[in-house]
Amino acid sequence: MACTSCASDKAGTLNDPKWRRALWIALAINGGMFAIEIIAGITGGSKALQADALDFFGDAANYAISLGVAGMALVWRARAAMLKGATLAGLGIYVLASTLWAVWHGGVPEAHLMGVIGLAALVANTGVALMLYRFRTGDANMRSVWICSRNDAIGNIAVVLAAAGVFGTGTAWPDLIVAGIMAALGLWGGFQIISQARAELRAVGQKSEPLSTMPLHLNR
If we measure between CA atoms, which residue out of 38, 53, 52 comes closest to residue 158? Predict the structure, then answer.
């Protein structure tokens, strides 16, 4: 599922060359799989694939933020997170709305395409999780990245099961149910990110405000 925390907010974490290299590889894999899944989901009529693409987008944005702004001031990290959260929430709304529309107007998605792409996504996320496994005992940020990749692999299994359900029942319901759950989780994650980013921006604003001066009163 889409992560709701930045992969690394500590500059010290990013000083490890192995950690940076792992993040770059994870970024490339997640970015590529996002493009593949969103295209396959649209062309194959699978809402579950489109919803799963949100996970790849969320993680890719997570890694990009970690590599690009983690060493900057908190205000810039919070602004970048705000953009990430807004985009993730927007995609979640799109997938959720299209899923609801498909309940009444959609057709049966291509089960074989769902299965092939779902398995490819499972292999990609499993590979990322194994690559990040060595960092599972690091700081909270390192551990969160590995946990997110592990959870995404579990989400991919749900997509594969949805493909099997579509193939076995000949209906779109397995696809729509999985898509609805995953889109709702992506939407919830986006709002969580926005909420946390807003809190951080408020905290920065309060620290930067000058001390208020006591009003002067004339003695009568």
Answer: 52
Distance CA 60, CA 27 (A): 5
pLDDT tens sequence across 148-180: 777 778 778 989 999 999 999 999 999 999 888
Half-sphere exposure of 189 (CA within 13 A, CB side): 26
Q: Count the helices and strands in the chain (H runs, E runs).
A: 6, 0
Q: Is 54 in contact with 95 (CB distance < 8 Å)?
A: yes
pLDDT above 90 covers a percentage of the chain that reads 24
CB-count burial class (<10 Å; 0-12, 13-18, 19+) for 50: buried
What is the spatial distance between Cα 22 and Cα 128, in angstroms, rounded to a whole number? 8
Q: Which of 180, 142, 218 is nearest to 46 (CA)?
A: 180
pLDDT digits over 124-156, tens only? 988 988 888 887 766 555 666 666 777 778 778
- pTM listed for this prediction: 0.73
Contacts of 61 (CB under 8 A, 6+ apart): 84, 87, 88
- Give the integer Cα–Cα distance in Å for 60 and 12: 21
Contact 54, 92 (CB under 8 A): yes
Instruction: Determine the angle formed by the axes of helices 140-169 and 111-132, rounding to 10 degrees.
Output: 160
Sequence-ordered list of residues with C-beta below 8 angstroms from that of 68, at least 6 positions apart, any chain: 80
- The one-character DSSP state at 70 is T
What is Dmax (Cα atoms) for the chain? 90
